[in-house]
Q: What sequence folds into this?
């Protein structure tokens, strides 16, 4: 019987249990895939903790890569034996699952299952953030928080490729060093340094055109203050806790700012958007401009330990779970 990491109540990493599951034949429009590797993302933590309400019981996880074993009626996009990967479909921490075939991307030969599991959700996120939410151009000053994390590591490299001036932030000197190696021109150790002062110093008081903030509660207001007039605040995560309600007048006082709170689901809802974004992601990886750093690997059943490390800020780059 296939196994999965399930949770029946919200809570800490310990609510996740290694269990047998039944996987029926794929229904119409579905494919059954056998995972080779599964990605670990901060959204998995929000869903497990109950910050994002999901049905109970649930299988954790939102990203995986593997081989198609069978397809249901009407499926033409993939066939048994295909190497595939996906992002943003809950129920990934398992050996075998059924999934809507239209959510699957065929993997190019030069991308391994491990790489795919480490980059689909994070890389597609970076694609929409820096190519679509705000189209970063050469010379733009960009602040990117948590720059040594999974999303941050891909973002720094991609932003370097675009010629942006990147001010990263991270929670230790070692993480800042990693962010700089990945393309951040500067990195502020926000446990030691004042972000706003450093951004003002680096930009000569002009501020940044766009701030990408996934830290949330702890950094939101500083991020707004780090923007140039008419700058864009992209609040895309809550690693330190959810952002409190916003007084819109603050946006006028700080210089006619824009704020958006985007989510990957919206940006890949259409199959055409998913295909275009994935092609662009595979392209930057194939070109060597973006390297996927898998800095933590665990057996699938050790997902609770992977969550402890991610929440404990002990990880850098991407984390994956291996099925065998
Ligand atoms: P990361 O690998 O970036 O891990 C999160 C990082 O956040 C930590 O390593 C830590 O880095 C930083 N952090 C700051 N404060 C805290 C805190 N109090 N507790 C824990 N971590 C903290 O995770 P991911 O790459 O998976 O995701 C990055 C962010 O992007 C997450 O917030 C996630 O929710 C968001 N996201 C949003 C998406 C969207 O579409 N809206 C899609 C994908 C991801 P440091 O120690 O350097 O501060």
A:
């Amino acid at each position: 019987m296939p196994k999965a990491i399930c949770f029946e109540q919200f809570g800490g990493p310990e609510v996740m249990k290694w269990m047998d599951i039944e996987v029926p034949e794929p229904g119409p429009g579905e494919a059954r895939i056998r995972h080779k590797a599964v990605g670990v993302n901060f959204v998995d933590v929000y869903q497990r903790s109950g910050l994002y309400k999901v049905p109970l019981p649930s299988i954790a996880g939102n990203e995986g890569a593997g081989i198609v074993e069978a397809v249901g009626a009407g499926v033409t996009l993939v066939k048994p034996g295909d190497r595939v990967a996906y992002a943003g479909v809950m129920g990934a921490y398992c050996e075998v699952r059924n999934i809507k075939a239209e959510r699957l991307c065929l993997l190019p030969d030069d991308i391994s299952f491990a790489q795919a599991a480490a980059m689909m959700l994070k890389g597609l996120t970076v694609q929409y953030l820096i190519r679509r939410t705000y189209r970063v151009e050469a010379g733009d000053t960009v602040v990117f928080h948590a720059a040594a994390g999974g999303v941050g590591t891909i973002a720094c490299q991609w932003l370097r490729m675009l010629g942006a001036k990147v001010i990263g932030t991270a929670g230790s000197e070692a993480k800042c060093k990693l962010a700089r190696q990945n393309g951040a021109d500067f990195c502020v150790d926000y446990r030691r340094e004042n972000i706003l002062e450093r951004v003002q110093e680096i930009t000569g008081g002009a501020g940044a055109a766009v701030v990408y903030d996934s830290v949330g509660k702890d950094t939101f207001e500083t991020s707004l203050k780090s923007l140039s007039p008419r700058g864009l605040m992209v609040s895309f995560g809550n690693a330190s806790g959810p952002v409190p309600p916003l007084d819109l007048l603050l946006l006028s006082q700080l210089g006619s700012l824009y704020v958006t709170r985007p989510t990957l689901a919206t940006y890949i809802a259409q199959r055409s958007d998913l295909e275009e974004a994935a092609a662009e992601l595979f392209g930057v990886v194939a070109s060597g401009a973006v390297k996927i750093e898998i800095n933590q690997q665990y057996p699938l059943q050790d997902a609770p330990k992977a969550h402890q490390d991610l929440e404990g800020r002990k990880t850098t780059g991407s984390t994956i779970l291996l099925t065998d």
Q: What stands out?
A: The mean pLDDT is 98. The pocket of NDP is lined by residues 41-43, 121-122, 125, 146, 148-152, 170-171, 175, 214-215, 218, 236-237, 239-240, 262-264, 310-311, 313, 315 (CB under 6 Å).
